Predict the 3D structure of the following.
Amino acid sequence: MPVRQITCHVAECDVCEQRLIVDDGELRLDTPELAADWAVSSEWTDLGGGRLACTASDAAHDSARDAVLSAV
């Protein structure tokens, strides 16, 4: 059996470094854009500049989301 290196991309929260989990597993995708799209469709927040915030609700996450809303 050959061994092959593959490259995958995961969505990771810029606030707490939690990775996007779907169906009890880490979601690994072919491009960073697909990973970000999955995260946003899973109710994560696009913070801009390639940054994401997961759905956690605490002061740090709320502050990151509020900064995006106030910039609009």
